[in-house]
Amino acid sequence: MPKTASPETHPPDIEKPDAHHEETLGSVSPQEHKRLIRRIDMRLVLTLGCLYCISLLDRTNLGAASIAGMQTDLNMNALNNGYSVTSLVFFFITYTVFQIPATVIIRKLGPRIFLSAIVVLWGVIVIGFGLVPKWQSMAGLRVILGALEAGFYPGCVYLLSTWYPRYELQKRNAAFYLIGSMASGFGGILAYGLMQMDGGVLTCALGLGSYIFLVDFPEQSPKSWNFLNETEAAHIVSVLENDRSDVYAEGSHKVWLYTLLYLLTTANTYSIAYFLPIILQDSMGFDVAKAQCLVAPPYVAAGIVMFLQGMLADKWRVRGPIVAVNAVLGLLGLGLLGYLQSPAPRYFGVFLATIAGNSNCPALVSWQSNNIRGQWKRALTSATLIGGGSIGGILGTTVFRAQDAPDYHPGLLTTMVANGLIVLIVGLLGLKFSRANARADRGGKLIEGLSGFRYTL
């Protein structure tokens, strides 16, 4: 199929096609197009979201397990710093190093086989968590888990970016992330009821089932079971080519700024995921049951805000200002949590910090995907972005040290500084993109090598 570039400054909204877009629809009517998009959402967003949910449950339930007795059972203490090492070592080396190789493999092997296989394998590792006699053994298993999960999140982000036009992407990323983030909230309640880490069997079952429901890249979709026929696949490819002209993979300053932004964001999200139950118990004085249950409401609020932001960001076609506003909310929330005495405003601060960090994850991956053209280039920059996130995970899991209990001021201050840096970097990127768009409007250098392409601010 020949590639065609849209002469418009902004790509059309595929769910409300205009006159120009009617030509792209060809034999597929607008009503059939909407039904087709809903089918894609159900097969792709819902399936990936469920897998991400179980991924987060498997990787972040250490905080819940900790206050349920894991540190005592496995002899973790302030002297050996076993908890921080165990939560850190998952990210260390393997999760970061395997990001880019995993992205190359998913492009070659196909997402259906690749993603379902690694989910099954990490389920087997999680089963082993319940059998370890000491914390060093658990740390070793998490090294293997890091290698397996290295390709999962960037693979999901990349796969979503290949199926949707730029200004239909953030609400899908938000829905995907929303389903997963619910795991961080309700994982504590689940852990309080089970008091053990036995989710591996469920993980394996979902991994096997996902092989049926997952789909490959759009140009390969007729090969996916019971999904698109040749006409429908050709239609989706045509819509995407009209949007950014990069459906077909080619050979392989702002990329690093996006990576830094994601690093700073995940420093917040991982620190909250791992240490919030501990802070609620140690610093705010709640017992185990209340600490487990009080984790959930902030994540519910974050999910609602995240999806609403996704819809508005796609409608308004903006990304950066939303990221900056979230960072300001995070800065305020962490300040309330760390430097007030009354439990009520401190818990309100937990809401703000959780909303800010989690909402910025889909916003940033969408912003990066919007402004990068080319299949391999976008795949590798997605891996670089998530690799930065793993470094943020290292930061987030080490700044809250056992010796800083019960207030954990050094960790809270570090994450506050991270939010301030996010605001600064977003401002710099916004200025850079505005100037580039203005030069292109005056007939200057093409942006991303495509006539009519403009950076999303």
UniProtKB/TrEMBL annotation:
Compartment(s) where it occurs, according to its Swiss-Prot or TrEMBL record: Membrane
Domain of life (superkingdom): Eukaryota
Segments passing through the bilayer: 44-68, 88-106, 113-132, 144-163, 175-194, 255-276, 288-308, 320-341, 379-400, 412-431
Pfam families, sorted: MFS_1 (PF07690)
Membrane topology: Multi-pass membrane protein
Main localisation: membrane
Keywords linked to the UniProt accession: Membrane, Transmembrane, Transmembrane helix, Transport
Start and end residues of each stretch annotated as Disordered: 1-30
Composition bias type Basic and acidic residues, residue spans: 10-24
Protein name per UniProt: Major facilitator superfamily domain-containing protein
